């Protein structure tokens, strides 16, 4: 397996353009009545046209049998081994609301919860308070001042928030305050290393003040913190691949992930048509574009087979706008499967196609799970995608003399 | 590549059942007259039926070109990298006669041999003495007493035995006494570390007493020891996978291997029908069953093509009893190939199929080497089998958020 450091040594800039379209959760399973997957059911002449001009295959985002979360699935496609580059829960939560973390910031995932008279946890989610109420309480906690650090408490959704601590000499090496069990008191956090002692003091002081400020609340009268973490030290895509990369995504989580690997996030609208207009607008300014299509995953998670089929058809009908740009390399794949029959992310491998003047086409004539199995790439690791993209764009030198 | 430590973090218990059937040495090569392999020749409607409902593929137990012994082949399927987890020769010999080793026991593989008047090795196997004679001599040696340790000498077959030393402060870090060459004297063993000095003294004292006790024997007048080793420190399947695993095997070697990874070994009879009755009897008590079918390998090693075909047919006709249990995940594969034409274990990849409500079926309609090549799993490492089994049984959480 080639490592990023090897790629870095042979990557070179060139005017060629790469477009990577990630259709979130695109892989599926057959509908029990028809025996056809979502992709096999959808009318998708443009995706099939691309397949005929491509080398196709099936990717394992992490490895066979492993169901990827959104972050590991995307990191793998961007070429970063998700087993090696682990993103902490706190950072992921911050990324998910599109917060830009500085390198030294400490982030934690927070829950508002309910404790009883003796301080024991009664509801881990404070009865799922409203997002509006959440925002109000976060403002209350953001005022807390602790020795020389800057504290932000940012609402996510319902009972969830992100705590960000900015300052000197901090470390994320802390235990959770969340015991993840009812009937226990929220814990103090403990330092897991000498370097984290000061941070532990700060967090425990924050927790104690938070308890005071919330004590009169009817349900959200305490907080739970977990997943203290710092932005992972990912080498940027421009550093490794010598690319000038841009992201066109409608959901904050994917914009955040793109930022972590050094992509510039472009302003765009809510629909795939908006996203492809953005692509056209900025096409001259970058040489790598990540275009993220979300609804296939959401509808798969809802278990709505027919709506996922329609989302594929909606995407397909927008594609001529992309095809008219005729990128030197066009890749279409997904970060994982989300079969509507399972109604969740799954471990099944994901259809993949790469179209380029220099690809060795295979016999695949349809973009689907079954058809791609017979493709020229066979079944392979998502970590190979970036080297393939660069190679077909003639952006990689020979390895060795 | 996902490691056991990662699997451990995402494994969860659930009521679903996994049955793993290992058909020993199942892979084959074409008969020169018919051009068909053993599997392709056999009438096997039930295996083919399972194939049609499965995702199929071909596994490499160790890696392409590598012929696995029984231990590495099985360890890999159980998810333990056989390159990382090496089982010493002495331990393997003990496992092969179903001896339960304690963690600190030292085991060595022994040969009875013949030495001449000058003490030089004349026959490395003492002319392959009978197993009965072997048992008699082992009793003679088991009486030997050496400073504060407990010594067992257990017969295997013909000239082979296992030496087990139990006591405090021992180490397996010793050279062999067996020079593996004729015309040389048996060696004293040397310690390879400071910790092994005491053990070396004990073994050399044992060797010297054994020489005395055997000197009047006509052929088996000395012994050779090699492969001093200790039970490998394998994390158990229940620890890693959160399974409650059981083994149903007729041969001691496979029961021993199963025990090494923490399976409970169930009492069973000699035939596959007995084994499947055992499966039914204990079906409620465990959630993972390893069923081992041996004769395909033995008959392949005998070079008996037709008998291996019949063994496959015998297995196939017993399968309805298994299928009526309808396990949530049913896997059928082998630990290596044993082509009758080669009459030995071989390096050829092994047919694999996994049947589950949640598998993505492929076009494979027959359980054979050629047919499985077109399967949805393609060609893959046996180390992926356990993650796939757990995934399809819905016993794995998402990796990362």
Structure notes:
2 copies of one chain form a homodimer. By secondary structure, chain A is of the alpha/beta class. In chain A, 32% of the residues lie in helices and 19% in strands. Chain A has helices spanning 4-10, 38-41, 45-52, 70-77, 89-96, 131-142, 197-214, 237-241, 252-260, 272-282, 295-301, 305-323, 369-373, 385-392; strands spanning 18-23, 54-60, 106-115, 121-123, 150-155, 160-166, 222-229, 245-248, 264-265, 288-293, 329-333, 350-356, 378-381. Chain A has an 8-stranded mixed sheet, sandwiched between helices. In chain A, strands 3, 4, 5, 6 and 7 form a 5-stranded antiparallel sheet that branches. Chain A starts with a helix and ends in a 9-residue tail after the last helix. The relative contact order of chain A is 0.25. The mean pLDDT of chain A is 95.
**Largest interface, by Cβ-Cβ below 8 angstroms: which chains and how many residues each?**
A-B, 31 and 29 residues
**Gyration radius from CA atoms of chain A, angstroms:** 23 Å
Report the oligomer.
homodimer
**Major sheet summary line of chain A:** 8 strands, mixed
- How would you describe the shape of chain A? globular
Q: Determine the N-to-C terminus distance of chain A.
A: 19 Å
Q: Order of SSEs of chain A, N→C? A: HEHHEHHEEHEEHEHEHEHEHHEEHEH
Widest beta sheet: strand line-up of chain A: 9-8-10-1-11-12-2-13
Helix content of chain A: 25-40%
Provide the low-confidence segments of chain A as ranges.
none
Structural class of chain A: alpha/beta
Overall pLDDT score of chain A: 95
Number of helices of chain A: 14
């Amino acid at each position: 397996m080639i490592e990023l450091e090897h790629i870095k040594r042979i990557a070179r800039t060139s005017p060629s353009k790469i477009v990577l379209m990630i259709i979130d959760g695109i892989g599926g399973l057959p509908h029990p009545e028809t025996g056809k997957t979502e992709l096999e059911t959808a009318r998708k002449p443009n995706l099939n046209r691309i397949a005929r001009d491509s080398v196709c295959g099936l990717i394992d985002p992490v490895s066979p049998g492993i169901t990827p979360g959104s972050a590991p699935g995307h990191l793998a496609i961007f070429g970063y081994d998700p087993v090696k580059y682990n993103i902490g829960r706190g950072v992921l939560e911050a990324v998910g609301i599109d917060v830009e973390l500085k390198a030294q910031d400490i982030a934690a995932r927070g829950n508002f919860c309910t404790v009883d008279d003796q301080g024991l946890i009664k509801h881990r989610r404070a009865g799922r308070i409203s997002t509006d109420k959440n925002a109000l309480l976060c403002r209350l906690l953001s005022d807390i001042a602790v020795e020389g650090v800057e504290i932000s408490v940012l609402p996510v959704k319902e009972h969830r928030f992100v705590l960000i601590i900015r300052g000197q000499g901090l470390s994320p090496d802390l235990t959770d305050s969340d015991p993840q069990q009812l009937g226990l008191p929220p814990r103090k956090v403990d330092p897991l290393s000498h370097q984290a002692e000061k941070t532990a003091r700060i967090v425990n002081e924050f927790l104690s003040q938070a308890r005071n400020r919330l004590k009169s609340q009817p349900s959200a009268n305490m907080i739970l913190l977990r997943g203290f973490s710092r932005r992972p030290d990912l080498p940027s895509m421009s550093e490794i691949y010598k690319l000038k990369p841009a992201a066109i995504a409608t959901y904050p989580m994917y914009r955040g992930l793109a930022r972590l690997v050094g992509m510039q996030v472009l302003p765009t609208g809510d629909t795939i048509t908006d996203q492809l207009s953005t692509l056209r607008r900025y096409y001259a300014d970058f040489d790598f574009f990540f275009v993220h299509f979300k609804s296939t995953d959401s509808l798969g998670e809802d278990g709505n087979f027919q709506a996922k089929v329609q989302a594929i058809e909606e995407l397909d009908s927008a594609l001529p706008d992309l095809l008219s740009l005729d990128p030197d390399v066009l890749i279409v794949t997904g970060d994982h499967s989300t079969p509507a029959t399972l109604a969740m992310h799954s471990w099944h491998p994901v259809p993949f196609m790469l179209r380029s003047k220099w690809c060795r086409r295979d016999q695949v004539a349809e973009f689907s799970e079954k058809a791609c199995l017979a493709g020229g790439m066979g079944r392979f690791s998502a970590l190979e995608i970036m080297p393939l993209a660069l190679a077909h764009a003639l952006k990689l030198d020979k390895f060795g003399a």
